[in-house]
Every structure is written in structure tokens, then in C-alpha cells.
Prior knowledge:
Layout: E1 2-3, H1 12-19, E2 24-27, H2 31-40, H3 53-64, E3 68-75, E4 78-88, E5 91-99, H4 104-118, E6 123-125, H5 131-135, H6 143-153, H7 169-176
Parallel strand pairs: 5-6
Antiparallel strand pairs: 1-6, 2-3, 3-4, 4-5
Amino acid sequence: xxxxxxxxxxxxxxxxxxxxxxxxxxxxxxxxxxxxxxxxxxxxxxxxxxxxxxxxxxxxxxxxxxxxxxxxxxxxxxxxxxxxxxxxxxxxxxxxxxxxxxxxxxxxxxxxxxxxxxxxxxxxxxxxxxxxxxxxxxxxxxxxxxxxxxxxxxxxxxxxxxxxxxxxxxxxxxxxxxxxxxxxx
Length: 185
């Protein structure tokens, strides 16, 4: 399951959420905390998680090296949702997400996708097939297509020297939610 950044689908209701002024999105300000939240978030149909203390420590080392990143949704100074993953070249490998407030993980995800699109990333490996990711535009591709695309993308130099948000979706969706591409419910 992958998402090509240019194929992101945003429903009208999610567009309204993205225009909301009561949240703040940040990158890499609470990496360990995001991982810890992901490790304790119950998953439907899953008895536990693979995100152990040792995995958190290993990913935090990758974060220190500049490969692992978190995107966080904050509300009233509280971390309410987010995700983390690995960036190699111009490919992003999503690992896990969590929410403590409705739509908080979606807010982080959409900001990530839009920022990666601006940086000319070629795809986001979502790994798991879910209705949630499919509703946002993710789709399955063959293993051979994924391998071919990744072979080029991981060798590509990313256009981002630092992981910082340079987009403002609140303004973008203030004007864009009536376009046909964004009218999905």
C-alpha cells in the first residue's frame, strides 16, 4: 500500500478540520514521545505492538542521524496525534501513527504528504492496507513496481536540507475545499 503524494484525497469534512485554527503541526519536536504514544495505542484486531523499548531506542538513533522523523499535531500545548517514519532519498516509509483527539493523526498525515509533495518525494510506503489509508488516496501496487520505483527514489537527493514545515494548509484549504478533487466525503 503506497500513497503517491500528488494522489492525496481530502474529503470535504477533513478540509474543514484542516482549516481549523485550534491546532498546530510540528516536525521532529517530540520524536520519542510520538513513538511511545504509538506503542501504547490499541489497534483493532491486534493484541499488542512491535514497538518495544529497544525499537524506540533504535529509531531514536535513526532520528539523531537524520533518517527518522515525526509529524505532530498539537492542541492547546498538548500532543494530540502524530506519526513517524523513515526518509531515504525521496521515499518515506511510514511506520505508525496515533491519535488522542479526533482527526489528529489525519491532520499530521495530510501535512506530511503535502510537505513531501513540495519536496518532490515520489511515494510514501504505507505498508498496511487499511480503509483509512485508501480513503486518503493510498493504493496497492505490485512488489515489482514498488522495487523499481524505490530503486530510483532512494538514490535521489531530497530537496529538503532540514525537516521543517514550509506549507500552510489552513490557508490552502480556506480557498480549495470546493474544487472537485477535494469533494470526497
